[in-house]
Amino acid sequence: MNSTALRYFLEVARTGSIAEASARLNVASSAISRQIAHLEADLGVELFERRPRGMVPSPAGELLARHARRVFLEEEAIVNELKRLRGLATGVVRIAATEGFGLSLIPSAIHDFRRDHPGIRVELHVDAPAEVTRMVRDGDVDIGATFSFAPQAGVRAIGEGRAPVLAVLAKDHPLAGRVVLSLAELAAEPMALPEKDTTARQVFDIACGLAGVSVQPVLVSNYIAALWAFAAEGGGITIASSFSVHSRSVGTQVALVPIDAPTLDQRRYQILTMLGRRLPDAVDAFASHLIGVVQGLQPAGGQGNLI
To answer: Residue 298 has what DSSP assignment?
Structure first.
């Protein structure tokens, strides 16, 4: 199997279309079709199921795709090691993160990291938790930072710990000085909540259901910065983790108060890498740095684990 054929195959597997792969690779569709046909002939299996709306990897194709991703990631790691041996302090770190991590905490961590490693370039992609995990599992990124309730297949959590959901409210709010808030007290206030595909909203809804409390939010948004701004302006109360309300621009304007509901302590943060992958030096160094930053924000008694 030559690397060109594997690259063409992998791009078709990723996009589900020879035409789309052709556009992304800037290679003629006929050339991609020939390479895939040669691969199938050499291996004696069909790598794709041809469907009216595109191409879906067959079981054999899925197996080859996993192999191909590891081949190219290993190739990248070797190139980076050779550069290091030549004294080149360079490298690329690709990160996928949920918005709670990606809006403030990770940019701050990148800034601090690059003060000591100015030759390292970083790519950051922000998405939903399930997509972050998929990107790590498929090798689209090197590191994932997300929230979860359970271990995920195909990835390894190199850092994890508690990520309780807290109430976020303006510092001059009448409830800002409280040691803890009940769900009933929150339900009596205007609430701004993230959309239901977020782990914070999911665990909050479960807690309310178990407590028999009904919360009707006055604001729902898929953009947590809008929720924080709403809370900071005194419009109501929202929910987040200590990782989310990280930047000075937001953190100085709001107070974080624990919520009296055991279910809200069940969520965990995870720093992920692909299962079984050897990380390039730059990626390994940044992952260790990020874990240190996150652990520094852990609530008392909630120190995470470095695995």
So the answer is: P
What spatial distance separates the first Cα and last Cα of the chain, rounded to whole Å?
A: 35
Helices marked H in 224-302 — which ranges? Answer: 224-232, 248-251, 281-296
- Please give the mean pLDDT across all residues of the chain: 86
Task: Give phi and psi for 56, each to the nearest 5.
Answer: -115, 130
The pair phi, psi for residue 145, each rounded to 5°, is -125, 115
C-alpha span between 34 and 81 (Å, rounded): 34
Show the low-confidence residues of the chain (pLDDT under 70). Answer: 1, 82-89, 245-252, 298-307
Structure tokens at 160: 């994890």
CA–CA gap between residue 44 and residue 245 (Å, rounded): 54
Cα 113 from chain centroid?
Answer: 19
CA-atom Rg of the chain in angstroms: 23
pTM of the predicted structure, to 2 decimals: 0.69
